[in-house]
């Protein structure tokens, strides 16, 4: 038992980080009704700013076009460094609310989710741009000398310090929101905004103050917690965000005490899994630590379900329209022929960019089916793609199943996982469903992608994907002496055309109309005789299948894949560019492919400007564009083009 006690206490530091991030998420939700998926990114940026001030006195600026940093001349002392860093956090939180989420106050949940994803993408991309070395080892801040609890039980004390800070923060926040005028006003606005306005309260001002306070909490967590391990761009996003969301969900996004206790428990129990791997033969060696938050989230959803809190605001904005695609066969054929010809005519760099755009369009189509037609928010699309990619390796390499049977079977495996992750959609939707799909994607990555028992492995750290062949014709991307074969581009173009036609027909079909009815009003759809549960599960299955096809194309393109090929950040960027293009239409998916990072638009821009830009700059631009699109035009580029054509048509009509 001493070993378990050691790991339990050792996990107090990680549990405190989870607890404090979870309480920050509760703050933003109480103030504005937003589940801020960019919250970990704010903690990350402030941690890097603090490191820069302490290391060389430089204050790093986050906006392109400005000087990269203000030279402070020398290392900065601790007190001014932390004061400047927390002021930066406060300013960042206030700016994000004022320019991103205040305009979205009455927007549907989808717009708020994608806006927070846009902020996340932009902030993490800026970290990569501003810091040459992104893997850092900050100096210890809290006392870390070992403390002896019992004769055979000695642990570092910094975890206890963090746990004490987390508990103190929970008590302070509880007191503020229980006894102060500001706290009571925030609670009143959360329950009934109209009533709060009648009493003379300003929901906007209250939300701004809550966002500022939450950002300061995030900054403090980033500064204090980064010395526990190496500081990296995805530390607070990939490692701590999902557990923090689980803790906040257990606290129903209202209780600081329950959220704090849940966060501490998650971190401490996670730590004991190290010893369980030694003592319990059947305990999974990989993924158990990361799977616990997923189980906590699912458990909370099962127990709370429809009782999860909603804010008392009136949501008047509608979801993006899902128009019927009116492309004729001749138009589709002309587009197909032009794309195929481009693979034979264009130079090599253009071909790769075009190929990237086509595969991204396939992934965006999977979101058109699920989010555009059904209104269900998924942050696990790349997890489904990865399932298909690794299944393809098993079918094609180990079992020697030929093309195209192997990728179809792999996509069907992804479909099964899509149904599994989609089960919570029978009880929740909107922001809460986004949380569970995010957690599901992380759990799949940890339990499956990193487990060689499921995926296999090679010396290079990935798995091999054999080249596709059909009737003896090599359809692979490369061959000895040629880095790009047009045959592969033709195959990808053909696959995209088939999926485009299928999704267009789905929109016209009875199933598509049922999906739109469920999106509009689930109760009304059920009253009209539509099986809502079945419609949701079918949509998740179809979406996962399309994403799985995209995952097999990624595998064929690179020849080898690893867990990094289908990570959480990739899922977020797929959603980002799909929304920019227009998440509710087939045309929007094609535009999303064109503007995706590494796609034809960015490559053309580089060629025109005459200088290369980094992938991180492209991601930053994509994140900013996503925020702008969510705020200014939720219909996406495709919707803007439709509106422009409609305006010209009306202007041309005789009066």
Q: Explain this structure to me?
A:
The structure is a single chain. With 655 residues, the chain is mainly alpha-helical. The protein folds into two domains: 2-307, no CATH class; 332-567, no CATH class. It contains 28 helices and eight strands. It has helices at residues 2-10, 12-32, 39-56, 78-101, 109-130, 158-179, 181-191, 193-198, 203-225, 235-239, 241-250, 256-279, 288-304, 329-345, 348-373, 381-398, 405-422, 431-449, 452-455, 486-508, 510-520, 522-527, 532-558, 568-581, 586-595, 600-609, 615-632, 636-652, and strands at 59-60, 69-70, 146-150, 153-156, 463-464, 469-470, 473-474, 560-561. Strand 3 (146-150) and strand 4 (153-156) form a beta hairpin. Helix 5 packs antiparallel against helix 27. The model has no long low-confidence stretch (mean pLDDT 83).
Structural class: mainly alpha
Helix content: 55-70%
The count of helical stretches stands at: 28
Pick out the low-confidence regions.
Answer: none
**How many distinct folded domains?**
2
Rg (CA only) = 25 Å
Largest sheet: 2 strands, antiparallel
Strand arrangement across the biggest beta sheet: 1-2
Rough outline: globular
**Mean pLDDT over the residues:** 83
How far is the N terminus from the C terminus?
A: 86 Å
- How many individual β-strands? 8
The portion of residues forming beta strands comes to under 5%
